[in-house]
Amino acid sequence: MGITQFSMEKNRFTLLALLCLSVAGVFGYINAPKAEDPGFTVRTAVVVSYYPGATPERMEQLVSKPLEEEIQEIPEVERVRSESRTGVSIVYVDVAERYKDMSPIWDELRNSVEAASRGLPEQVIGPFVNDSFGDVFGTIITITGDGLTPQELEQYADDLKDLLVATPEAARVSIHGVQQRKVYIDYSESRLSELGLTPFQLRELIRAQNIVLPGGEVYTDWERITLTPSGNFERIEDLRNLVIPIQERGELVFLGDIAEIEFGYEDPARTYVHSSGEPGVAVAVSLREGGNISELGRDVHRVVDQFRNQVPLGVELEITADQAFHVSDRVNSFMVNIVQAMITIMAVMLIAIGVRMGLVVTSLVPVTILTTLFLLPMFEIGIDQVSLASIIIALGMLVDNSIVIAESTMVLTNEGASPRDAAVKSAKELGTPLLISSLIICAAFLPALLAEHSLSEYASPVFWGVSITLLASWVFSITMTPLLSARYLQSAGEAKESKVGAAVQRGYRHALEVFLHHRVLVLSGLCVALVVAGFGAMLVPRQFFPNNDRAVITVELEYATGTSLERTTELVKDLERFYHEEYGGDGVDSWTSFIGGNAPRFYLPFNPEPARSEYAVLVVNLTRHEDMESVIDGTNAFLENNYPEVRVRARPLVLGPPVEAPIEVRISGEDEERIFALAESVRGRMRETSGVYGVRDDWGPRTKQLKVLTDDARAKAAGVTSQEVALSLQTALSGLQVSEYRGEDKIMPITLRAGGNAGSGAQQIEHLETVQVYSTTTGNAVPLTQLARLELDWMPSRIMRRDLSRTVTLQGDLREGYNAIAISEGLESWLQEESRGWPAGYTYEIAGEAEATTDANRAIFDQLPLAGLIMLLLLVAQFNSVRKTFLVLLTIPFGLIGVVFGLLVTQATFGVMTLLGVISLAGIVVKNAVVLLDRIKIEIEENGRLPYDAVIQACTRRVRPILLTTATTIFGLLPLWFGGSPLWESMTIAVIFGLAFSTLLTLGFVPAMYTLLYKVEIPSQSQG
Fold first, then answer.
1. Rounded distance, CA 339 to CA 366, Å?
2. Quick one: which of 595, 658, 876, 1012 is 20 to 30 A from 519 by CA?
């Protein structure tokens, strides 16, 4: 017993199963994890090392390079990049796209870093491996309050963090903008000299006293007792009461008598956070893996509302980044698109084929969609804009299965068969061709799943969504549709041919006969059109991924390297005042400023910058998406007029894998001067290129350094070593950490510094000459001027390396109306000529959007042979004929005529998702051709028609289902075109125009080529 007969005989079971699947789909949608985008794995880890005082060159040679060489040997690592700055080395480790499981790779990375660390200088702090670089903290809450101290802000942030961590959907909670508290011991150099003490002696005394060590154990007959020696500093008074022996006088003094001891904050600060211009702190929350963002959003709002009731009046809490809201908004928008597409398709069907047959066919749609929503989570696919868009893409196609079965049932009924027998025969006759056709479309989307690129993780739901939807519709078309057709379609005596349908068939039949009589001429014209389309494709602008339409922008500001945090803060304050005055309440809703960097990754494609004083980023929430262009232009104009020396980058959020800059050129080599000489010529070319602005390099301008050149003879005479010179300078200027204060509930550094030079005055050049250098052997202090001289020098602000070579990356931003890939191609043509005169060992690479697009397209094209092979095998299995298979495959390229025409007319771009649309279009074209050729075979073998008559009859019989499928697919995609996100605009345009033209191909090109390949004799028109 076949599945169709079973479903009809067990009709109550069939209907109950359909009802259960529909209900399961509703609950599946409610409970499935939801997101704005499917996301992708960030295959990058960061290795950070600190070497206080080391110049960028020394950091490169002593730290970055040894780490790179060791890490590069890990087979899974595709690329190693490094950034060496004064005292800091940051190594970025990029794993090849084909690897999915990161945990064992990160374990191997830690082992390699540990092995490399044995060869690093002893003074290096670290290296530290951060493999959670890609964690997304999509929810940000800011805490502000007039008159609140940094300590109070920190305490409120800690309390809120404790509440948020306890929520079941939260993974991690991080705090930003908190100033590190310290215990400062400010001594007077004159007072220490009077007592014959040195700062180093104070350091050793404090360390010796401040211990947490066991004192052993004693035993009695019944118990064991642990001895705990005192000495740990738990109160500030413990530190003030530390006894200092004065050996020369034989006296004892308290530390509090010879130094000022008090709590303070790190000076200078590392980062600040402002919320809409008010100083505060930010608390960021990330979702646990596999968690529900909607539930997290509800929990966060509940906790914030609860916390507002606990804090004093005047303490303000604001959710400045709400991922749950954006997800809900996006998902709801796409569900509306699905409903609109369903209604549109059902309306088209009811109008085109009548109410009764229309209801039979369209009843398949809601059941299929609900079943798909039920099955998606089983394949670990969540509800997001990509998975929902895949359902919309499949909507029009899935109706085709039901149309073919229902129409065949009606035709057989009109020919005298009983409705039941007609339904069973139709399903048996057409089930296999429809299944193969559906599998062919699934195979067309296979490259989206198999591509060894982060794009695969982003676009793979398209494959699963389309495949599950189409295969579910096929199952229902051979079970549900025959059941309903047999019951509700008219009997032979009642059936009436639609006047519109009959007119369409008569008109098509006449056009087809004319077409076949002039087939060589028409086919030649199509070939010419295909060649023209090939040249036209060169005029279509290309793009990696479009910008997100979320009403949020980021504004990145960067001074020259080494600029103080205070100056960066004044810049941000000025921009914030501009926002208040220009856009307050109309254009700009709120914003969060991360001054000094260290912003959380609030959005997956956003790449946070490491903390540095010259950098700031503002996350700006707009009142409307329509305000984006005016706010970006206003921001750029304000900063260009008032701060021309600042690099500004105001831009929308992007979709898909991130790209640092749209235009990028990398130049690699070893000699710094030669690299920059080559880079300067490229920089000039980029500045001359129309549409490119903000050209810069990732090394930044050279920065100042003061070299302290010690006179060895004088230093030895004074009993001073180079190490003592360095420690004395550090103690006098920025303070020397000597121990830790373990009081209250936090551990704070204890910092020893010269009180007279504390604060901002300590970092003024004129104070350097008065710094006292202490000798640990003699106990004497000598002014720095007697031992050394100062010399101003220039050094790179940072040294960038890539794949073990020094690399300068030139970056440029793009003005509105220009295309990054076209500009990059022009630069590459110029570089090919220019680089012929470069020295050996110096190379260039085009990066930015051009590289990202090339890599993504290559990853897709690498999988096309497999998809093509599967399609070929399915075609041969269906036809058992090479000629028919060749004929079907021949139709695919001609679909590009409609695609190119549509993209040019609508002025759309060709992006990565557009490529997937074009590939899927090939599957649709093949499906129509398969069913048409199968019908020709039936007319010849079963109905005994002559080949020409079989072609005419098969095409006439298939014209209505093909036109209906085209109409439903096109109308179903219209809501995605006009109401979906920018991600789908060009893809839907390509499919709509390509499908419209491909329909003509199926109805004209396929029968014409069939008659040519099979040498079918065309009767004269007089005979016809």
1. 9
2. 876
